[in-house]
Batch of 4 targets.
Target 1
Amino acid sequence: MSDIAKDTSPASMLECMMLIRAYEEKVAEMHAAGNMAGTCTAVGQEASAVGVVRALRANDRILTNHRSVGHLLARGADPGRMMAEVMGRSTGYCKGKSGSLHISVKELGVVLTSTIVGGELSLATGVALSTKMLKADGIVACFFGDGAACEGIFHESLNLASVWDLPILYVCENNQWQAFVHRKETMNVDHVSTWANSYGMASRTVDGNDVDAVYAAATEAIATIRATGKPFLLETYTYRLRGHVEPDDQSYVDPKELEAWRAKDPIAKSTARLLAGGALTTDSLAAMEERVAAAVERAVSFAVDSPFPALSELTTDVYA
């Protein structure tokens, strides 16, 4: 966990959200130009990632899903090494073998990124059980979407975590869309958090587009987990502003719905609040935007200039 990832000031969290947005938009732009493989973005969900991850400690573990960029960058991952990984270069976090959908960063406590919907839910209980048996101080943060909450493994994982009193922070990033299917077509409730109650698990829903609200709710939930040793489900109610996977024209989305959620953009909301409160000036905002743009360009240059893995790496880091 980097020093940057420990900074929970509103300005630092805003800059991190801006970095996540700029990074993902650059990846989408490079894909459109034929210079990058298609990937799943989480544009619009930045407050959820930053608010939760910044509330974690260095010894906490993270299991995430195919929309993992925000979680990784908020944790302090290097944009250049992430970009190199997506481009299949040897300087990536997994030597270019994972792409964007399977990145793990051991030094940051990111156990895995699972592209299998709900895959991380099936493994979080094991990681948490290990943490409990070793009497470690850390907790496990497991990120998943509303689509994964409709999988059977969601209910199995929550039930087991509740029965065994496992220190897991379940984070459901309810972004309203399950690939190309709207949430309302697959569930008859608005909030996934209500399902946790049937397992005797504490839960809460928070505005996932308000980074301050997410950070406060995550901090409180994590404190509860540390004090009781029991799991907690935090639902961040948010929205994915881009399609399921690049490229995607979102022709299946109601334009009015999309426009309504664009008006709730988490970055715009945080920027307006900081400017109004005097914690940010137009000059400091411009400097922030310049730093973010420069960081993304450095990441691209680093990745493009990095070599592909040698043929001898083909069978290394493989379990048999």
Note: The longest helix spans residues 282-305.
Target 2
Amino acid sequence: MAAAVDAGRDDVAALLAATDLLVAGPFQADRIDTRRPWVGSTNQEFVLLGDRFPGLLDELSGSPDRIEITVDRAGQVAVNGWAESDVLDELLIGLRGSRR
């Protein structure tokens, strides 16, 4: 799979060489997946590209979906992952209450 994608592209080949787990397949908004971490839709699959984490695929089936929130030094907030609207609302309320 990776060979077809990176044919003639050194930048893509380098990125894939540094990648342990690839989520393959386009996001499809009509097939939302809230059961598996790191994917957006049910058509996407996990492809293990290295051997650093041999049991990773087995562990994913038992991992709940997560949300990652990062705040940079300037206060810019980025959200990655999936959460229901009420969960995001609770997080935002907590953020508003903690400002000084």
Note: The beta strands are 21-24, 45-48, 67-71, 77-81.
Target 3
Amino acid sequence: MDTQQVIAPPCAPPPSSGDVTPSSGVIHLNIRHTAGFTVIGNHLAQHRGLSLVAIGLAVHIQSLPTGARIGIKRLADRFPESETRIAAALRELEATGYLHRSRVRLPGGRIVTRTLSYNQPGADAPTTTPRPQTRPRRPAPPQHTTRPSEPAAEPPRPLPDPVAADVPGPAPKPPAPLVVATPRPKPAAPATPAPHTQPAPVLVPPPTARIAPPPPLPQPQASTQELQRAASALLADLRRHTPQLTLSEHDINTLAPGVAAWLERDAHPDTIRRALTHDLPVPLRHPAKLLRHRVTTLLPPPLPGAQDLAPARRSVVVIPLQNCDRCDRAFRSRHPGHCRGCRTDLPTAA
């Protein structure tokens, strides 16, 4: 009766402040990776100046092995984004220093594009050296844990020894290099902006060269409701012949004046339909822009009239006949007078 029997389970310890589930926001369920992973810095994952396409493309490039091809067409085949968006994302990465592309001539004379990917732009090579120093200290604890039956006071004893040995060793050395380390960041500072400033001027010309106003859409001289109705019906009927040319109501109202100009110039509807649907590009991404280009550039001239088709006649000037006042001989002249034989003012042959 004196022994105490514990029947109720022990109370669970109160949750710590870090285990409280937030009422809103993301909740991370992280599992430690042991193979097949890539380390990405938050300066890239949370970059405020890059688009989502540029951040995702940078993560994909850093996960690829050395020597992998990352051309624009290859990336467009790999991802659903277009070549234009991928090219713009690559230019963003070049402007922020995560990527650097240059043209290199091989010994055989072939010119290739060499791409350098930076996981931390602006970092110098010496910043990566202190990392391997922390790794050899991790296997040190297993050597002390191999002593199972020893008291727990022995493992902490060897730990302060290497720390004490390491501290006095480098302690006298830092004061001397502290003065020498000051000039090192000075040459490193101008070296870092060099790769950023080089691609910057190269990226400025392409966008300015692409900006060009599209040619104006042709307009009919006398716009009537019949012409507008026939043009809208012809554009809406294109999807029956070519499903790729399915236009919205806004696109039909925009392109209708151009087709009305074709109908005003006596173009047959079959001729217009053949000009708009023949030899379409594959894949067709912007049907409205393609039709606007063809309606504008392939517009036929007005039909000539009957007077324009009549052959031009050469006007012949007929000089009237005159009778000579002296010999009454007929000769051609615009004014009356003497013939050639009766004129005395003409020079005679020697």
Note: The longest strand covers residues 99-105.
Target 4
Amino acid sequence: MPKTKMRDIVVILPGITGSVLQKDGKDIWAVSGQAAWQVLRSFGDSLYQLKLDRDDPEADDAPDGIKAVRLVDDAHLVPGLVKIDGYTATARVITDNFEVVPGNIRENKPANFFKFPYDWRRDNRANAKVLKKYLDQRLKQWREFTGIKDAKVILLAHSMGGLVSRYYLEVLEGWRDCKALFTFGTPYRGSVNGVNFLANGYKKQFLDLAEVLRSLPSVYQLMPIYKMLKIGDKYHRIAEAPFDLPNIVREKAKDALKFHREIEDAINSHLQDAEYRKSYKTIPMVGIQQTTLQSASFIDGQIKVSSDLPEWIDPLLSDGDGTVPYLSAVPLELSNDLRETYFAERHGSIQNHTRVLQELRDRIKGMQIQWQNIRGPETTPEATGQSAISLSLDDLYLADEPVEIHAKLINFQNSGGVKAQITPVSGSGAATTYTFHEQEKDWVLTIGDLEPGLYRVSVQTENAGAGIPSAVHDLFEVVE
């Protein structure tokens, strides 16, 4: 098939931890294809260089001299906080289907396809300002180079990359130059995982990494902005708790909430502008049907997280993508627009899901057509009624515990079985297929002999044919 000419500029923004960081030309965060324990072992004390004691949102680079140089293209995870199965497939959708000129967003050369590595430690305000600086330059240059005066920007943002994009578009007025924002699992209202990681770490492992991440304003900006912490018989926002919470710096939490309110205030102001209302479209790709943390309680001096929704939230919002709750994956102002598209997939893999990539390709092709009334985003929340696999597993398994994975079949009567293909990402070895065993309404897989390392898992039914749920993917790690 011939490629479609790309008139616009396309930019991929990764999630938190998704950019390689260097200092003095040496990698200090480069986790592509590695397990977290391998990273800690290989970088040792240099990992503490990632701590961020101060950050000037007006500066192009952080004061400690650390710079983002490229995307982490392969799978990696930070247990308890985030899992990302790379961005290679996302990039190939663009290069395989469109005539584009790849370039480096920081280089002064005409191009229209970029990856935007950013220092994910920093305040998202700072990275949004860096994004604006370079997009202003590259878009002007592309328009002059091609003569396409109405060329605009299309942003493809995974997870926290969507928050960077939102600040650029709304607070920094980037909407004037933008055609579309596609988000894959962006936590518009935050993620309980961020609270859990800050307050409790993860399985008491990686405490040195937890100490580093607790210093970062970006991690605080991933915390929920809705009332989800139950203290006594009332729910509170983390930033508005009536007393200090363990391992959470109150001032950082307040500033993180302010970051989200700045975006909200800018949108409410822009909605009065007729030109704005005809400008860019936000198209959220939402992961569903996966068990996801939804709330927390303060009990006996500790924050204890739960997958139970706060009582005041509609129970139809009770799932998510395993990291980002369903209620958080849609922007506040689009809550009733039915603009989002739903996929039964895990957070770290949604940007690589086959249907997501097909949807992305077709929508961007439609945006290159020279007419006004382009078909809008899918408006069928009935997608939640499609057959699906709900996957539940830990991020990390210790050497003395078996790997246990649970799967549930949604809207599908399975007369066959459920299987998992488990592939080593770090280390060597071939993919191995395992069969789940049915236990009441659950399907369970227990493995007791995996070598330490990072693994990719793909779960699907044994059945083939029409109506079967699509495979679900995730990452997990086994440590020594």
Note: Residues 124-146 form the longest helix (23 residues).
